[in-house]
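tool_call: predict_structure(chain=1)
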Amino acid sequence: MMKRRILLTVIAAVSGAFAVGAAEAPSGRKWPDAADGFASVNAMGRNGTTGGAGGKTVTVTTREELEKYAGAKEPYIIRVKGTIAMDVKGPVAVEVASDKTIIGVGKNAELVKGGLYVGGFHHPKGHNIIIRNLSIHHSPDDGVTIDASHHIWVDHCHFYRNGDGCIDSRHDTTYLTVSWCIFSDHHKTFGIGWTPNLTAQITLHHNWFRNTVSRNPSADNILRAHLYNNYLYGVVSGNHSRGRTNMILQNSLFEKANNPLMLDMGTLVETGCIFRNTRGRAERRGPAFFDPGKFYKYTLDKAEDLPEILAKYAGPQENIGQ
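tool_result:
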């Protein structure tokens, strides 16, 4: 075991990735430190999304420390330890500059009564940002706001009981992946769009929406939206393909869900999904506008296995950020 730990550390140091390398789940699942989905695509001058890789690693326990490093010009890997009370002073959200990884240490790292803002007034058009392994809750506004930015990866977070959206991705934000997150006990969960343009490309996979009301997610005018292996339980409205969005929906599970599939003017092609005790709108329209496999590699789990998989592995994990 000691030799294996040393080997992982050496590999991480050589690659410039986070210090402990890829975290390994008890069943053998490994959580890489670079994004998958559209956030992994080489575009707009970026080779995927690597966050603060290559920069200094710091540990923060206060809002003041988080603000200092999140807003710095240099790349940083910022480890959040314990609870950070975001309402101590300043705006509701901490602005995040480009080339940052903000990662919780273990399962108990959280931002309370405030969130994060990517692409804010002081750091517009952010890029190459990773937000991982955090609980973000009871913010009076959004948990995470992303404006006019690209190459963003939100992974293994738990969002609940925020004032507005858990995540709002707006104004042509693109090359976004949201994976292995829990969204629970909330109203307007996850809005994507706020633009007349048809340019954004997003991936949502292995997310657990439970006991939420609307925007699960709502995707408005998205050129390519790839949603797979998501579990929606007890939601009032499901996946909403708004405006001219082109959505591919694969191997997701909708249980006790109202209006699981809602479609406006675009396309929505669904394969391999399961619908249990659902009612209301379940709208589809093809043909498929794109093939996700031509942009990146991915593996589908069976829809029926999602409750067990996500109960174990969605949200913050003890073996991430250590």
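agent: Confidence is low (pLDDT under 50) at residues 1-21. Proceeding to next step.
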